[in-house]
Design a protein that fits this description.
heterodimer, A: 370 residues, alpha+beta, OB fold (Dihydrolipoamide Acetyltransferase, E2P), 5-stranded mixed β-barrel, 9 helices, 24% helix, 34% strand, elongated, B: mainly alpha, 69% helix
């Protein structure tokens, strides 16, 4: 899907955008981002990473300090928010409490001077879309959180905007409702084929819903990729640690050979890894291996890398067993073992052998906090 | 079913559950009552009793019967519409009453009371005390009329009879510029003489104007304070509250300094040539002065409730409205403004009720055209000593405020009011 979208003009383009609030620090540093028509793009990152600022610049509530934003071929910098034709779902929904649900939905249509019959028809269609058909006469306060959320989504879509922005829209819901709403929003996106820019700090939400995810940190996009790539092929240490669970081993790059390199770990072992974003031979690096890519038992003989480990702790989680081990001097190495495999020898204190394939181990930059 | 079932429940010691529960709660309830008691007693003494006393005074009229008991009794058989003077017995009773009254020096009191209803009664009774002392024997009628020919007027006796009952509507009638004729009809004063009605209407109009002015000036201030970062907002709130730390008298008199004909504002206007030196504006000691000074003094009472409500309106409402395509101005009117209505209601009703009973400022800067009904009430309490009329005026004012309150409740709903 992304392959098709990368051709032709992008629908939204951030071009060398910078933003500073105080004139001393940049909240957004030189952002370049293209979003294709019909894409569901998520901006993911910890708080203060600049993702919400980017969304607000796109909506028009903040002005870029430098650079330009283009929507559908037209530069947006001098267009006031009410003329941008961008629907937005806010964190706390921002439903107008003095209007009924139907009046809330009719608001964007009334300001567009739409005829009465058409307004009614569109409002009803939008209500049906979010399965709130009979609730038009209620006030937002009389609805549950999930229903309010749906009204907010319907209101952002009812006037057929060019683009829909969502600013952590599910943050106020409980876990179960949040997961249900993720699917509903995803289905609405699939059915309408509308372009969505979604901001969240919840990685599972981002992985579930998005076509592509832009991981923000420190005002910079760390990696822009589809969910599977992001998880399986993180470009740098930040992404590897931010998305999903990650085992890290630290060492020095001793040699580089094509797309692979060999690394001498702090504990003395030498391993090979994919050469991704380290700073070169002789420089420190962080190796990243996903817990479910580490093998034990009979599978170890297929592995490219073998190491010895001491079992520290077993946590039974039903479908899998989480095992914490000491590997190469680090005692926070985690392996996920499917419940079906033979668990012989998995007793705390035992020495076992484990291994992984070179392509699952990525040599990344050394983060400051390690 | 359910009742009999629950009545059957008993505690471990065999007591019905309800009895045990009531006993357990009694101690708490007594404690709560004890906590409330001081305030309740304070409110009763300082608020409920004075208002009850005021309402009583506005209809109370025991003085005539108290000082002229025999006359009041004798007048019962007299038909005031007959067109004839009362008979000898009434005059005899009056002379007897006057003799007693003179001894107790109360004859001037009843004269003063009746003088509210008909001028001349005060001097009649003042003189009569002495003159009645000289009348030793019958015929009382002839001698009394001889001593003062007013005793020979039917209207004198009509007034005495009319105001001999213990309760009277007279003060209320007077407070709306009406009176009861001796024949029992209610007659209103000519409109140019109807001073109380005029003052009530003026008080209401000016209070409405002041309320609108505070709203007009206070709304942008409250909006500014509510939308500023906390640091600047708090500073602005202090500036709004600053006038409270200055004496009301100082604030009012400073307006005299600013607004008078030789005052700062006139001087500036003359200096920049907007008005000529002999065309100086009269802005004080009239209605303009009252409105300006009171708008300034009551402004915080509008700003504070507005601010507290605006603080609760999330800024995302405006953002949502503009993102939905509304120009900032309609977004403000259709989305932000309706959410501030509870604050406007609270501020308006607060300012209006304070303004309608305001006294000091109109007294100082109101002149003759800018005084309120409260100034008239003060006049009757301090100068004319007609407390009954003052009480009736106060009661009418109270009723007006209550009517406005009920109207507000009907139109806006008192539940929608938010003071903070």
């Amino acid at each position: 899907m992304t392959g098709d979208q990368s051709t032709g003009d992008p629908f939204v383009r951030f071009q060398e955008v910078q933003k500073s609030y105080d004139g001393e620090t940049l909240v957004v540093k030189n952002l370049n981002l293209d979003i294709a028509n019909g894409e569901f793009l998520t901006m993911l990152g910890p708080s203060g990473s600049g993702k919400t600022t980017c969304l607000m610049m796109l909506a028009g509530f903040e002005t870029p300090t430098h650079g330009k934003i283009v929507l559908d071929g037209a530069p947006l910098n001098d267009v006031p928010p009410h003329k941008r034709d961008i629907g937005m779902v806010f964190q706390n929904y921002a439903l107008f409490p003095h209007m009924t649900v139907a009046e809330n939905l009719a608001f964007p249509l009334h300001v567009r001077k739409m005829g009465k019959a058409e307004v009614e028809q569109r409002v009803q269609r939008a209500l049906d879309m979010v399965q709130l058909g009979p609730f038009g006469g209620r006030r937002p306060m009389q609805l549950s959180g999930g229903q309010q959320q749906r009204v907010a989504v319907a209101r952002a879509l009812v006037f057929d905007p060019k683009l829909v922005l969502m600013d952590e829209p599910l943050g106020a819901l409980d876990k179960q409702l949040r997961e249900q709403m993720q699917f509903e929003i995803k289905h609405i996106h699939d059915n309408l084929g509308i372009t969505v820019v979604y901001v969240t700090h919840d990685q599972s939400e981002a992985l579930t819903m998005s076509n592509r995810i832009a991981v923000f940190n420190d005002g910079i996009i760390q990696q822009l990729a589809p969910p599977a790539d992001l998880y399986e092929r993180p470009d740098n240490a930040f992404v590897a640690q931010f998305i999903g669970e990650n085992n890290k081993l630290t060492g020095k790059v001793s040699a580089v050979d094509g797309d692979q390199c060999s690394v001498e770990l702090e504990s003395g072992e030498k391993v090979t890894a994919m050469s991704i974003s380290h700073s070169g031979v002789g420089q420190p690096t962080m190796l990243s291996i996903r817990p479910e890519r580490v093998m034990i038992g009979d599978d170890v003989k297929d592995c490219d890398v073998h190491v010895d480990a001491r079992v520290q702790e077993l946590i039974y989680l039903g479908d899998h067993i989480r095992t914490r081990l000491t590997v190469c001097g680090r005692d926070d190495f985690v392996v996920k073992i499917p419940n079906s495999t033979d668990r012989a020898g998995l007793v705390p204190g035992n020495e076992i052998s484990l291994g992984w394939r070179t392509r699952d181990c990525r040599a990344l930059d050394m983060p400051d906090n390690l | 079913m359910q009742n009999s079932a629950s009545a059957a429940i008993v505690t471990a010691d065999g007591q019905p559950l309800k009895v045990s529960l009531a006993r357990a709660l009694r101690r708490q309830r007594m404690f709560a009552l004890a906590l409330v008691a001081p305030l309740f007693i304070f409110v009763a003494i300082s608020f409920i009793i004075p208002i009850a006393d005021m309402l009583f005074r506005s209809v109370e009229n025991g003085i005539v019967e108290e000082i002229l008991p025999q006359t009041v009794k004798a007048l019962e058989s007299w038909d005031e519409t007959s067109g004839e003077l009362p008979d000898e017995a009434v005059f005899a009773a009056m002379v007897a009453d006057l003799k007693v009254a003179r001894k107790e020096r109360t004859n001037t009191k009843v004269g003063q009371r009746l003088n509210y209803e008909r001028s001349g009664m005060s001097s009649l009774f003042r003189g009569a005390g002495r003159k009645a002392g000289r009348i030793k024997e019958a015929p009382y009628k002839e001698q009394l009329i001889k001593s003062d020919k007013d005793w020979g007027k039917i209207v004198t006796w009509q007034v005495i009879k009319q105001f001999s009952p213990n309760l009277t509507p007279g003060y209320y009638l007077a407070s709306v510029d009406a009176m009861q004729t001796p024949e029992g009809e209610i007659r209103f004063e000519d409109s140019e003489k109807a001073i109380h009605t005029k003052l009530f209407i003026r008080t209401m109009i000016m209070s409405v104007v002041i309320t609108l002015m505070t709203l007009l000036l206070g709304f942008p201030i409250a909006y500014l304070i509510a939308t500023q970062p906390a640091k600047i907002g708090n500073l602005l709130i202090i500036l709004v509250l600053l006038p409270f730390w200055t004496s009301l008298l100082v604030r009012t008199t400073s307006w005299i300094a600013l607004l008078q004909q030789q005052g700062v504002i006139n001087d500036i206007l003359v200096f920049i040539g907007i008005i000529s030196d002999d065309g100086r504006l009269t802005m004080i000691h009239n209605a303009t002065g009252s409105v300006i000074a009171m708008t300034h003094i009551l402004l915080p009472f509008m700003v504070l409730p507005l601010y507290s409500v605006m603080k609760t309106v999330p800024p995302t409402y405006m953002r949502a409205a503009t993102s939905l395509g509304a120009h900032p101005w309609p977004a403000f009117w259709k989305v932000y403004f309706p959410n501030t209505v509870p604050g406007i209601g609270a501020g308006a009703i607060l300012v209006f009720i304070l303004a309608i009973g305001y006294y000091i400022t109109p007294e100082l800067v109101g002149g003759t055209s800018g005084t309120f009904i409260s100034n008239r009430i003060a006049f009757h309490i301090q100068n004319s000593l007609n407390w009954g009329l003052a009480a009736a005026l106060g009661a009418v004012l109270l009723v007006i405020v209550l009517v406005f309150y009920l109207l507000y409740d009907k139109i806006v709903g008192i539940d929608n009011m938010k003071l903070g």
